Amino acid sequence: MKQLSKFFIVVCMLSFGASSYLIAQTGTEILEKMDDVMYASKNLKANNTIILIDKNGKEERRDAYVRQMGTDKRLFRFTSPASQAGISVLSLPDEVMYVYLPAFGKERRIATSAKNQNFAGTDFSYFDMESVLFTDKYEATLLQTNELSYQLELIPKVRSDYSKVIAHIHKTHFYPEIMEYYDKAGNKIKEARYTFSKKGKYWNSDEIEMTDLKKNHRTKMLMTDVEHDSNLTDEDFTIRKLIE
What is the pLDDT of residues 18-61, one digit of tens each? Predict the structure, then answer.
């Protein structure tokens, strides 16, 4: 009986120690694993269908394509309708971003203070669209776990209109499922819901639905024709490519 009691005590101590370690470590670790999923391929090509939905349910469709290289280069360009075609945003290392508006015929660098503005009438801000690792943008704290997901509190490391983001991350595959965005007053102002599927060895975000809770307006971004590890080079992420 004494031996059994000692064994039980040792097991409890080990379990408590393991749990304490996880709580102390996993906020950042989980976010790092999410980054590993989100930026798993060396580069990516895909087409996007963007659907804007107003408070009355009226829909407006746009088409675009996206090019991604590594963790810090992304080019997004609208291809239709004609009123939107050519509008592009280029995200580069060191938080550098450019936007090109054909009506003005010139690229414009986006100031850090302007990154919180919505991109081309969607519910995504420039801050949401830039290609930066989440671990570079946010400090992560593990709030709670359940059988299916982790819940993290993300506090911006850089200038942002968000005071925090609450991220719900799949417990097995580490992709984001829900992101809840809060303003400086602590009010929840936006929510993004993700749908992922696995294609080959990579998890892809087939759909992101961003809702502006104040405006009761939604933007769905659907990704198709995904091609990983293609022949993209640094030359595909230049000002020249932005305005072509």
Answer: 444 344 358 999 999 999 999 999 999 999 999 999 999 999 99
Provide the percentage of residues in the chain whose pLDDT is more than 90. 83
Nearest to 46 by CA among 186, 243, 222: 222
Question: Is residue 7 predicted with pLDDT exceeding 70?
Answer: no
> Which H or E element spans position 46?
strand 43-53
Distance separating alpha carbons of residues 119 and 78, to the nearest angstrom: 11
Q: Are 167 and 154 in contact (CB under 8 A)?
A: yes
β-pairing, 96-101 vs 106-109, is: antiparallel
Buried b (16+ CB within 10 A) or exposed e, 110-132: beeeebeebbbebbbbbbbbbbb
For residues 82-92, one letter each, b for 16 or more C-beta atoms within 10 angstroms of the residue's C-beta and e for the rest, the string is eebebbbbbbb
Average pLDDT value for residue range 195-217: 95
State how far the Cα of 222 lies from the Cα of 197, in Å rounded to an integer.
12
- H or E stretch including 126? helix 126-129
Q: Where are the alpha helices (DSSP H) in 65-181?
A: 126-129, 134-137
Short-list 2, 24, 20, CA closest to 140: 24
Strand-pairing partners, residue 108, are 99
Q: 116 vs 9, 92, 133, 183, 192, CA distance in Å?
A: 53, 17, 17, 11, 16
Alpha-carbon gap, residue 210 to 157, rounded angstroms = 22
Q: How many CB atoms lie within 10 A of CB 12?
A: 10
Judged by DSSP in three states, 97 sits in strand
